[in-house]
Amino acid sequence: MVKKPTATESASNVSKDELLKYYRDMLLIRRFEEKAGQLYGMGLIGGFCHLYIGQEAVVVGLESVTKEGDKRITSYRDHGHMLACGMSANGVMAELTGREGGYSKGKGGSMHMFSREKHFYGGHGIVAAQVPLGAGLAFADKYLGNDNVTFTYFGDGAANQGQVYETYNMAELWSLPVVFVIENNQYAMGTSVKRSTRSTTLFGRGAAFGIQGEQVDGMDVLAVRAAGEKAVAHCRAGKGPYILEVMTYRYRGHSMSDPAKYRTREEVQKMRDERDAIEHVRDLLLTGKHATEEDLKAIDKEIKDIVNESAEFAKESPEPALEELWTDIYADDLPQGAVKQNA
Ligand SMILES: Cc1ncc(C[n+]2csc(CCOP(=O)(O)OP(=O)(O)O)c2C)c(N)n1
Ligand SMILES: [Mg+2]
């Protein structure tokens, strides 16, 4: 793990409003996920559910360097990405509970949500499948001649998949504007990085294809932001892909059915006590006198209200009608830039 930065080191160059935004956005993800965990326990969420708790600084830090038009795609551990790019808590929670008001009308669930409006392309259950898809999204932007960047998130386990390296090769060859974000939370289900590879510095593998990259402290939202700025500038300048290996940690199990026998409680507790990303920003806000305990309490309440309302919305939304089984199978309209062929 990268050394903990001091408050002054990482607080330089950040405004009060930015810090407050990061605090709010990370807290929303955490409280939303805690609520999802509760609803799962109550039997209101079926199927798979992979919580992101602990990793919030990764997506919040990187979203802070995006602009309109940038795209994001990730794995099944996707609720944080959706909230951070501005998708509504109501729509995500209703999808988790399989209701009509959800982003996929209740037909997709936790791992299969999309938002064209927010340029969020899923939600993918096959490990690493989103990596070539992310390069494809970046290819489309390059083809259309704009300066959008695609953020392609995947895990340390996914980094051992062959398709990642085929994608690296093509992405560099074609100078695609894609930031490959390896969320290294140190485990792939119950297998630690050390048990799965001798080459544990995952970003370094890009060198074989000529792709630059770096390792980042993923428990420090400002460190993530700084690395994200560099990566995105590289891509927008037409210099091709960039790899960010973001060192993070998930506090909860792999999914809701994880027996958690592969690590000790002490290991998890130590991360929570010493490296929690939300606590870190809270400290910066208080020590920098940007906010009082009262201000932060008011934000906590605001977030709690949003999350409670999303759970109510989800419970009240009806299940999808049976006829919905036959809708949303083929696209009715063509993507931007596509030319209609005569049949
Ligand atoms: C191709 C494929 N192989 C195996 C699985 C089962 N599986 C689901 S998640 C996972 C671990 C992936 O770990 P990592 O990439 O580190 O992501 P994390 O869950 O830590 O976010 C595995 C093996 C799968 N879904 N797809
Ligand atoms: Mg992992």
Automatic annotation (TrEMBL):
Cited InterPro entries: DH_E1, PDH_E1_Alpha_Subunit, Pyrv_DH_E1_asu_subgrp-y, THDP-binding
Cofactor(s), names only, from the UniProt record: thiamine diphosphate
SUPFAM superfamilies, A to Z: Thiamin diphosphate-binding fold (THDP-binding)
Catalyzed reactions: N(6)-[(R)-lipoyl]-L-lysyl-[protein] + pyruvate + H(+) = N(6)-[(R)-S(8)-acetyldihydrolipoyl]-L-lysyl-[protein] + CO2
EC number of this enzyme: 1.2.4.1
Pfam families the record matches: E1_dh (PF00676)
UniProt KW Zinc keyword: no
Domain (Dehydrogenase E1 component) ranges: 25-322
Alphabetized UniProt keyword annotations: Oxidoreductase, Pyruvate, Thiamine pyrophosphate
Annotated Gene3D superfamilies: 3.40.50.970
Biological role: The pyruvate dehydrogenase complex catalyzes the overall conversion of pyruvate to acetyl-CoA and CO(2). It contains multiple copies of three enzymatic components: pyruvate dehydrogenase (E1), dihydrolipoamide acetyltransferase (E2) and lipoamide dehydrogenase (E3).
PANTHER family for this protein: PYRUVATE DEHYDROGENASE E1 COMPONENT SUBUNIT ALPHA, PYRUVATE DEHYDROGENASE E1 COMPONENT, ALPHA SUBUNIT BACTERIAL AND ORGANELLAR
Subunit description: Heterodimer of an alpha and a beta chain.
Protein name as it appears in the record: Pyruvate dehydrogenase E1 component subunit alpha
